[in-house]
Amino acid sequence: MKNLFFAGLLLTFAACNSNKPVSSAEAQAFIDTYTEEYVKLYMASSEAQWASNTKIIEGDSTNAKEVERTGEAYAAFTGSKENIEKAQGFLKNRSKLSALQEKQLDKILYYAANNPQTVAGLVKARIKAENSQTEKLFGFDFKVDGRSVTANDIDNVLRDETDLVRRLKVWEASKEVGVGLKPGLLNLRELRNQTVQALGYKNYFDYQVSDYGMSSNEMMALIQKINQELRPLYRELHTYARYELAQKYNVKEVPEYLPAHWLPNRWGQDWSSMITVKGMDLDSVLKTKSAEYIVKDGEDFYKSLGFDALPASFWQKSSLYPAPAGANYKKNNHASAWHMDLQDDVRSLMSVEPNAEWYETANHELGHVYYYMAYTNKDVPPLLREGANRAYHEAMGSLMGLASVQKPFLENKGIIPAGAQSDEIQALLKEALNYAVFIPFSAGTMTEFEKSLYADNLPAGQINAKWWELAKKYQGIVPPTERGENFADAASKTHINDDAAQYYDYALSFVILFQLHDHIAKNILKQDPKATNYYGNKEVGKFLKDIMAPGASKDWKAVLKEKTGSELSARPMLNYFEPLMQWLKEQNKGRTYTLAEKI
Ligand code: X8Z
Ligand code: ZN
Hints:
Layout: H1 2-13, H2 24-54, H3 62-78, H4 81-91, H5 99-114, H6 120-139, E1 142-144, E2 147-149, H7 151-160, H8 164-197, H9 204-210, H10 216-248, E3 258-259, H11 282-286, H12 291-304, H13 312-317, E4 336-339, E5 346-349, H14 356-375, H15 390-403, H16 407-413, H17 424-454, H18 463-475, E6 477-478, H19 494-498, H20 504-525, H21 538-548, H22 556-564, H23 571-587
């Protein structure tokens, strides 16, 4: 990708390159000036986006105008011809630059490619279209039987309801939002592709993948390998779930593929709430707590490892709980974390309710926040205040989420009584229904769909057909009824709209998290990876901080090798679930498998 990128740049700007000799001091002066302006514009744009995501008022365009104004200013600067030429000029003499300077200049060009001034009109249209898509997605009023319901309400029904008629109704209601998002998505596909093409990327998928220093083909090969390695386990889980759910819903004939409305999640990406482990019923304990407890308890876990308390501004400025009933505004209902100024203003946007799913999500978001805090230090310049790669950023909090549901941890915290009997296989099954079930969704359905959309020019008339073709192939999930092209079920998923072409981040993050967890359990705690207690262990905290503190100033592959001794590998994840594999095969004896063994 890099080659293509520079080929494009040279073509566009060859005539303007200065031949002045460059020095590291000159490069540094440029980086410093750029950074000062960059941080200002980034802050202004973050504030506008924060307002636009936390207070969506129908018919009020105040936020939209601010998002456009600040977004355009940010784009004009980052994509300016002058900044591109300068960065490119310095990079012609890489040997004269320090590694840190080289990385920052590469970042400057990476940001530029999303906002080239040469296509300012397209960039402007994209900023407007992106904000309008987000407002439509999160301003949407879900309705069941004519009554407004929230995303949390929908999720609660899909988790607990056993009446299939009611489940179908709620599942269908959850997909209605996609209908109005389809034109916007098609428009954004064009705008996103065209903006990055102006600086030589093949398409927006290619652009996003290049942040890993990889080509799209390399990323697809990696992702497919992971998917294939997890396939035997997923195939057992899929077979098991078809039979168990048929029994749960009192359906005599076991379906070949899982009807989407049978699953306890809108996209079938996490089935863990299918199982309640006796003696470790975290969900019912958490339901007796407050939403505030969930977030505070997450912070307490991080603090026990030696992380600082969250700054007072986090509690003042975050938007952690659902909008009050009857509020005249809606808010983004998907969890996120924000580094507002690339300094100390860290926030999270959530709609926490006291249950196991939000407990996991709160841990996840705090992982982002503690990552921000760790790399906000004098050795990491603002332009490199990012994860070692995007997947690391996702992995940290998810790792803590995994650690926080293991039995010894829960016993230690007094969430479950010490010494309570519980079935280890059931606990492992519950985890697999979360972590293993997620892989075909993230590495399969989502990634393949977005690749098809951005890189392979998926025709507008095949958007929904493609989505369901992939859901069937990878997840073994089918729609409950015919879903024609009047629907755009993919667009009901947040990331398809506002975090485009990046969902492989999450698949990779799960692989990384099991690698880190395996290392922590075996080499630091000397505990069984399936039964750990991280709580209070400062050495674990140090291990995590050492990964987080350098941000993007270190190469992500080198970090993994240095910290775990191995390359990226799904082995630790597979080993973790190995005992479950045997058990599932036993359970599934005599049952019909419908998923192909190989993808
Ligand atoms: O989107 C998220 C985070 C964003 S910071 C809450 N996750 C993925 C999803 O919900 O689809 C976490 C894991 C998967
Ligand atoms: Zn995240």
